[in-house]
Amino acid sequence: MTRALINVPSRARRGEIIAIKTLISHVMETGFRYTTAGERISRDIIHGFVATYNGEEIFRAELFPALSANPFITFHTVATESGTIEFRWTGDNGYAATESAKITVE
Amino acid sequence: MAEAKNSGATRRDLFKLAGGLAAAGATVVITVRPARSTPTEMQAAIAKVAGNARIQPGRVKLELPPLVENGNTVACSVSVESPMTSADHCKAIHIFNEHNPQPNVISVYLGPRAGRASISTRIRLSDTQKVVAIGEMNDGSFWSDTVEVIVTLGACLEEVRI
Q1: pLDDT tens column, B60-77
Q2: Among A87, A96, B19, B49, which residue's CB has the most CB atoms within a 10 Å radius?
């Protein structure tokens, strides 16, 4: 069960730089850990993150095992127009999650 | 650490070895290759993104706590001085480390629509080491900042009970 938290201001002035905070629950298993029985635990991470603003890509990230569990990423964007900001995470073993937030620009 | 488990060396072997060498009157340094990358691997990973371009110090600000108690989550933020216009903007920010099992941490790609080249995230650090942030500009120049971090409890050390 995926749980993502997104923080996007619901209203912004046109041209204003807004901060976007994203957090998603995921173990981010590094692939470098072992069980007490000595077996290597296979890698299971989120390796891609993309944010689109009304369909246009505004931010993209490539994640590695050195990112903490429950990846938290904040970034900025210019509020250009009212619409939807969509977030998409992709990972190992076919993992995919999406979340979106609405913004009103005046 | 992790790879020591695969080497097949037992405590008994080490005692035998140490005993044998002590008998021979030799001093020896026993090295076990740990699961960590080296500064050379970090340089190679940096070269992969920067190619032959010169990386200059400045314009990038990497913020990390100087003393980290728990390497599993370390707050980390990077900002790059840039007007973020379509003519002059920061294209990408990369974070690298010296001693984690892999040198890469995160790479983010931005454009003029970002307004501000500034990100923050949480990273894992396995050991006391240097962390490097590199900002890539649209004119092909690269800027960097390096921070030395002391880690008291590293990430990836614990074994998992399953």
Answers
A1: 999 999 999 999 999 999
A2: A87
Domains annotated for chain A, with CATH where assigned, are: 4-105 (2.60.40.10)
Q: Which of B3, B98, B113 to mutate to test the interface with A (most CBs of A within 10 A)?
A: B113
Same domain, B104 and B124: yes
Exposure string for A58-89, b = 16+ CB within 10 A, e = fewer: bbbbebbbbbbbbbbbebbbbbbeebebbbeb
Question: Interface pTM (ipTM) of the complex?
Answer: 0.91
DSSP assignment of chain A, as one string?
Answer: ---EEEE--SEE-TT-EEEEEEEE----B-S--BBTTSPBPPPB-EEEEEEEETTEEEEEEEE-TTBPSS-EEEEEEE--SSEEEEEEEEEGGG-EEEEEEEEEE-
Do residues B47 and B29 share a domain? no
Structure tokens at A42: 């296979």
pLDDT tens, position by position, B80-127: 999 999 999 999 999 999 999 999 999 999 999 999 999 999 999 998
- Among chain A residues, the shortest Cα distance to B114 is held by A77
